[in-house]
């Protein structure tokens, strides 16, 4: 029997090549060997976008197009809409009792987000508590593996703790051996060299970008700031142009080319313009088929909607099975 894996994204905009390398490509690689559940986490996104539900609603469509365009196979992978799976908030309300307030407040990812988003003391209670709801996402399908970025690790640790506590108090319902699966490459920096690619930072290449836009963005990419001329020796490590080349070399079979470019770059034997020309070609090779597929799907929105509806129904079925066990295990008074 295949092991079950869950992955999810907050729908706050179109997905970019950082998502692709960090979580979408691994998901597509794993979907045949793991029984994969994908969640469009719109309820979680609402916890820090409560004043902009329209953005989230519109982004659900964008994310669906991105998912299907990169090759997530909806025949085997149920893609569920979180806000429509009402068993998740039901489970959250049970799980929230099994974790202390101070433990929730210690989550390093949430702390980082509060800082990044400048929430200060105004962080909504729902936002601070979202890891508990994420534990419910994971446990409601009894996932043994969670795929995503490193920032998901604290959520997985919390989920394990809560699952153990639940089983100890109410009897065995949940699998407690929940593992994190990392993509083979890790994460991509922004085109400006910032550690993360982010829409608000303006350093993003989208899976829907045109070839011209890819060309423009690569042209403006940050490289080695200390290198003034093509025949100066340059630094490859930490140079985002080379990090991008590394990220795609296996997929595109360009190892030999990339090794050779690195060698010449270190010696001062190649200019940024030439390296960027290769990167542009590689990115176009990767993105163009995704964009084309995305455009085809955009002309077939009935299909895209049906995929989400069916996927959500599959999620709901699984969620209801788990909740029946949970309700029985907790054993409150039953009106039936
Ligand atoms: N927290 C994840 C993110 O910000 C999204 C997410 C929600 C998720 N529920 C999940 C990821 C369950 C994995 C499993 O990207």
Describe this structure in words.
- By secondary structure, the protein is α/β, with parallel strands linked by helices.
- Helix content is about 55%, strand content about 5%.
- The chain is built from 14 helices and five strands.
- It has a five-stranded parallel sheet with strand order 3-2-1-4-5.
- Helix 3 crosses helix 13 and helix 11 packs across helix 13.
- The longest helix is centred in the last third of the chain and has 30 residues, at about 300-330.
- The two termini are about 35 Å apart.
Sequence-ordered SSE layout with sheet pairings:
Layout: E1 4-9, H1 17-30, E2 35-40, H2 42-46, H3 53-70, E3 79-81, H4 87-95, H5 101-105, H6 108-116, H7 125-128, H8 130-140, E4 145-147, H9 153-170, E5 179-181, H10 211-219, H11 240-252, H12 255-267, H13 272-298, H14 301-330
Parallel strand pairs: 1-2, 1-4, 2-3, 4-5
Helix pairs in contact: 3-13, 4-8, 4-14, 8-9, 10-13, 11-13
The structure holds tryptophan.
Characterize this entry briefly.
With 336 residues, the protein is α/β, with parallel strands linked by helices.
Q: Strand order across the biggest sheet?
A: 3-2-1-4-5
Number of helices: 14
What is the molecular shape? elongated
Major sheet = 5 strands, parallel
List keywords for this structure.
alpha/beta; five-stranded parallel β-sheet; elongated; binds tryptophan
């Amino acid at each position: 029997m295949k092991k079950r894996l869950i992955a999810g994204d907050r729908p706050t905009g179109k997905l970019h090549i950082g998502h692709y390398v960090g979580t979408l490509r691994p998901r597509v690689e794993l979907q045949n060997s793991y029984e994969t559940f994908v969640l469009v986490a719109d309820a979680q996104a609402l916890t820090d976008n409560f004043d902009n539900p329209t953005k989230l609603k519109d982004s659900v469509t964008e994310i669906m197009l991105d998912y299907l365009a990169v090759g997530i196979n909806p025949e085997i992978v149920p893609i569920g809409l979180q806000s429509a799976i009402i068993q998740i908030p039901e489970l959250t309300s049970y799980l929230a009792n099994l974790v202390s307030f101070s433990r929730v407040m210690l989550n390093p990812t949430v702390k980082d987000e509060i800082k990044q988003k400048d929430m200060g003391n105004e962080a909504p209670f729902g936002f601070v508590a979202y890891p508990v709801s994420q534990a419910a996402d994971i446990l409601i399908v009894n996932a043994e593996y969670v795929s995503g970025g490193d920032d998901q690790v604290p959520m997985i640790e919390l989920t394990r703790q809560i699952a153990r506590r639940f089983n100890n108090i109410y009897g065995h319902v949940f699998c407690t051996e929940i593992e994190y699966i990392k993509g083979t490459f890790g994460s991509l920096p922004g085109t400006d060299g910032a550690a993360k690619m982010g829409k608000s930072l303006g350093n993003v290449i989208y899976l829907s970008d045109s070839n011209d836009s890819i060309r423009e963005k690569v042209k403006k990419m940050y490289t080695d700031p200390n290198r003034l001329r093509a025949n100066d020796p340059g630094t490859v490590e930490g140079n985002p142009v080379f990090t991008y080349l590394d990220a795609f070399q296996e997929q595109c079979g360009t190892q030999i080319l990339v090794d050779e470019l690195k060698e010449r770059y270190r010696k001062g034997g190649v200019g940024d313009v030439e390296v960027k020309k290769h990167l542009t070609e590689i990115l176009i090779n990767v993105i163009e088929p995704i964009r084309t597929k995305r455009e085809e799907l955009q002309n077939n929105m009935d299909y895209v909607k049906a995929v989400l509806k069916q996927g959500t129904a599959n999620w709901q079925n699984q969620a209801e099975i788990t909740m029946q066990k949970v309700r029985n295990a907790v054993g409150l008074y039953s009106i039936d």
